[in-house]
Q: What sequence folds into this?
């Protein structure tokens, strides 16, 4: 069949007609969406009403995501777009106020994410207990701007579970097996059925008005949106968050929403760790991540209960390590140091072969504040200088070793020799984790070279026969220890000629036990 110019024109006219009809249908959807938001305030019902009308009157289906976009567009048209800020307007750039350290922001919205049972609710109630009991700090961080009331939308826990948290933080009075919570607290617990729909938000706002300057805790985002038909993995999940924020914007509320993280968050940050759509953390001023400092790699019981608490957002980034014991929270200090300590410990655990031997020798030398050069390592472990250097550089790249100063060459011309030492701490006593003083779950490790294991002073007694490293690289016999009072400056004496002494000797560098005692 041969097409003619008239056929092509008719086809183009037909396409244009269909396109105009489709555009008209979209305009009708936009107009109907405006009517929907006038009559119905609940977001979920707005979406369903728009979908039903489109199916019934226009004879085609739209998705919930598309319906939500149309509702948002209609809301914008309804509200109108204000004039932009210009040179006539002053902008307040006052620093953000904080409730707790640099972690929890005051009169802002905070997202706390963690795996289940890490302690999200317990942490917030701990902060609330410290504030409402007029304490000056919590876990070593100052309590600055304080709230006066606590409102909990706590669908994730029963009254009894919340009551146990209140009891631990002295936010109730106890009478036998029953308690009465502090009158400054309002609680909706599991079974209340409250959701972040129009009815729920209205009820929350009423409570915020009755209790000015409140901390509003929502536990959890999933439980207060579970009946609204929203997909957590789509941007529509941010709608109830934005609506509660808008509804309480003029009420001086400090908002905290608890949320779950993805299964593996070790080493991540508070933004990327949040489960679901990226629109969730984007809706908050501050995002806080709680994670086990040393999570188990399999399904075994989590025995190390230390928690790393870190934050990202419009405030200053901060990190803390804490632990929830049976009756109180305990601080383990700065989080950056603890995380670094655990990273070093993990790297140490995985060292093998030559790297392990070199690292062990550096650790033992550093017990007496002695640094080692490539030549020292090569002589001590019977390696070539190139192998010793490559091993030191590999340890340096892992962050276990650092170059610290240089030493002049003995009886040789040329560049000074680089000196190396471990990166962790200044003193050690044989346990690789001992520099991490706040770690009560230390795992003692055996030095990989047991012949030179500490305690060092007992290994270097007076009159111990030793060999001395001479300039040509040979080990010389017929020397004994004559003074071990300073292990970084050992004195040796010639056997049979005690008046011939050599000072400034270093154990395992230019001295070693005599092989023929």
A:
């Amino acid at each position: 069949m041969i097409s003619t110019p008239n056929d092509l024109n008719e086809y183009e006219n037909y396409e244009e007609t269909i396109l105009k009809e489709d555009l008209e249908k979209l305009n009708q959807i936009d107009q109907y969406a405006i009517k929907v938001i006038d009559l119905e305030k609940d977001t979920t019902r707005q979406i369903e009403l728009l979908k039903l009308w489109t199916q019934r009157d226009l004879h085609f289906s739209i998705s919930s995501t598309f319906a939500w976009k149309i509702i948002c567009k209609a809301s914008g048209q309804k509200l109108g777009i204000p004039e932009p800020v210009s040179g006539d307007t002053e902008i307040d750039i006052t620093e953000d106020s904080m409730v707790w350290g640099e972690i929890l922001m005051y009169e802002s919205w905070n997202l706390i994410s963690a795996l289940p049972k890490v302690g999200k609710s317990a942490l917030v109630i701990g902060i609330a207990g410290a504030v409402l009991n007029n304490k000056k700090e919590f876990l070593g961080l100052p309590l600055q701007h304080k709230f006066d009331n606590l409102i909990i939308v706590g669908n994730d826990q029963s009254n009894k579970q919340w009551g146990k948290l209140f009891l631990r933080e002295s936010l109730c009075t106890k009478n036998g097996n029953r308690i009465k919570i502090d009158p400054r607290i309002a609680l909706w617990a599991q079974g209340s059925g409250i959701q972040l729909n129009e009815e729920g938000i209205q009820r929350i706002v009423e409570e915020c008005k009755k209790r000015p300057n409140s901390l509003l805790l929502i536990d959890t985002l999933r439980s207060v949106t579970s009946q609204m038909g929203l997909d957590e993995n789509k941007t529509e999940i941010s709608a109830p968050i934005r609506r509660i924020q808008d509804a309480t914007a003029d009420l001086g509320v400090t908002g905290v929403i608890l949320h779950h993280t993805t299964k593996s968050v070790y080493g991540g940050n508070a933004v990327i760790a949040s489960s679901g759509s990226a629109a969730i953390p984007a809706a908050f001023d501050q995002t806080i991540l709680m994670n086990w400092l040393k999570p188990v790699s399999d399904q075994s019981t989590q025995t190390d209960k230390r928690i790393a608490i870190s934050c990202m957002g419009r405030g200053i980034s901060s990190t803390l390590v804490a632990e929830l014991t049976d009756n109180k929270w305990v601080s383990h200090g700065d989080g950056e140091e603890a995380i670094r300590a655990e990273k070093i410990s993990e790297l140490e655990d995985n060292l093998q072969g030559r790297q392990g031997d070199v690292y062990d020798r550096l650790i033992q030398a550093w017990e007496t504040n002695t640094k080692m050069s490539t030549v020292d390592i090569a002589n001590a472990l019977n390696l070539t200088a190139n192998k010793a250097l490559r091993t030191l550089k590999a340890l340096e790249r892992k962050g276990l070793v650092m170059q610290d100063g240089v030493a002049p060459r003995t009886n040789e011309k040329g560049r000074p020799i680089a000196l190396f030492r471990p990166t962790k701490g200044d003193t050690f006593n044989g346990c690789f984790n001992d520099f991490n003083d706040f770690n009560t779950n230390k795992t003692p490790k055996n030095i990989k070279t047991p012949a030179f294991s500490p305690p060092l002073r007992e290994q270097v007694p007076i009159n111990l026969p030793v060999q001395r490293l001479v300039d040509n690289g040979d080990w010389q016999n017929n020397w004994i220890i004559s003074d071990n009072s300073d292990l970084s400056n050992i004195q040796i004496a010639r056997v049979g000629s005690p008046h011939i002494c050599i000072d400034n000797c270093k154990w395992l560098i230019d001295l070693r036990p005599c092989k023929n005692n």
Summary: The longest helix spans residues 5-39.
